[in-house]
Structures are given as C-alpha cells and as structure tokens.
Design brief:
The chain is mainly alpha-helical. 68% of the residues lie in helices and 11% in strands. It contains 6 helices and 2 strands, in the order H-H-E-E-H-H-H-H. The chain has helices at 7-25, 35-61, 93-116, 123-142, 146-164, 171-193; strands spanning 69-80, 83-92. Strands 1-2 form a two-stranded antiparallel sheet. Helix 1 (7-25) packs antiparallel against helix 4 (123-142), helix 3 (93-116) runs antiparallel to helix 4 (123-142) and helix 4 (123-142) runs antiparallel to helix 5 (146-164). The longest helix is centred in the N-terminal third of the chain and has 27 residues, at 35-61.
C-alpha cells in the first residue's frame, strides 16, 4: 500500500488540471461548464487522497512504532555533480496526521464550496485553484527534501493569492490578494534564510 504515496498529491493535481481546462474551454462562452461535473471532479480529488491516506494510516498502525515510515521516490529532479534532488515523498506519524487533517478537512471544504459557489461564473476556476492548493499543501506536508518542500510552500503561497483575490474585479479583493502575495514573499525570505 505504501507504494501508492504518489497518488495522494496526484489526485488533486489531476482534478485541478481538469477543472482548469474546463474553465479555459468555457471562458469564451456565455454559459460556464457543467457545475455538477466540476463539483464531481473537484470533490473526488481530495476524497481519493483522503481514502488513500486513511488506508496508509491503518496500515501504519500495524507496524512497529520505530518503523512507521513510508517513502517513495518518483524520479530524479535535479542531478548536477554530487548534488541529487529527487521528487520523493515521505510519510511518518507526524506527516500522516497532517495528511489526514489536510485531506479530510479539505474534502469537507470542497463539498461545502460546491453549494456556496453555485451559480458563480468562475465556478470551474475556483475548483481548479482549490485542487491546486490541496496538491501544494500535500507536497509541502509529504516532501522528503527541502527543495520539494519549498515547491509546496510556493504553491501554497500562489494558490492563497489566487483564492484570496478570486473576485479580482472587486478592488478590495484584488488589494487583499496583493497583500497576501507580499506577505508570502516575506515568508519566503525567512524560509530561505532559515
């Protein structure tokens, strides 16, 4: 079961990509894409991640406490001389707790949002951003190395900016999005210094 770690962040990435493509396809039309389809894709993605996480958590319970660690390397991202950075995921008991919180509560937020955003012209775009936020947060929580963790950190910052400034035609929302973007850059600097 631990060889399915890749599926946990991949499901929201696929959901975000599909909803983003549906949003782009409907951008020129008067009527947006089918909200039921968007909701199904948007809500299924974090639920798949949650289901795999629960299964991993149940598997982890039956392992000796000092061996409760799952890891999976997908591919080498950077190879330069002696430096090698892999896209690797790592789940221990602490990251398992965070993984279940992120996917469990995130799934509930997605389900609630499908009703809250009903009728909004940017419905598909919103769910694309939400799924990409989930992908970024899961990458942040499960990353085995600092460069991959930083990719997750940056993704969370970008998606926060996109979600806060979602209704960008309203100047207050646009200003709040800019403020979030600037605060995240300050956090990035502190992250890099640390």
């Amino acid at each position: 079961m631990h060889n399915l770690l890749w599926l946990i962040p991949l499901a929201p990435l696929v959901g975000g990509t599909l909803n983003g493509l549906l949003a782009l396809a409907a951008s020129g039309r008067e009527k947006g894409p089918n909200e039921k389809l968007i909701s199904l894709i948007g809500c299924a993605a974090p639920l798949v991640s949650f289901a795999v996480g629960v299964q991993l958590g149940l598997t982890m319970r039956h392992i000796a406490p000092d061996e409760r660690l799952f890891q999976q390397t997908l591919f080498t991202w950077i190879a330069a001389g002696d430096v090698r950075v892999d896209v690797s995921y790592w789940v221990d008991t602490l990251s398992m707790t965070m993984l279940l919180v992120v996917t469990g509560i995130g799934s509930l937020i997605h389900i609630y949002s499908s009703g809250y955003m009903h009728g909004d012209r940017g419905f598909a775009r919103f769910f694309a951003y939400m799924n990409l936020f989930m992908f970024s947060m899961l990458t942040l929580v499960m990353a085995k190395n600092l460069p991959l963790l930083f990719v997750g950190w940056e993704g969370v910052g970008l998606c926060s900016y996109l979600l806060i400034g979602f209704w960008y035609k309203d100047l207050a929302n646009a200003a709040a999005g800019k403020k979030a973007f600037i605060v995240n850059r300050v956090g990035d600097a502190a992250f890099l210094i640390g």
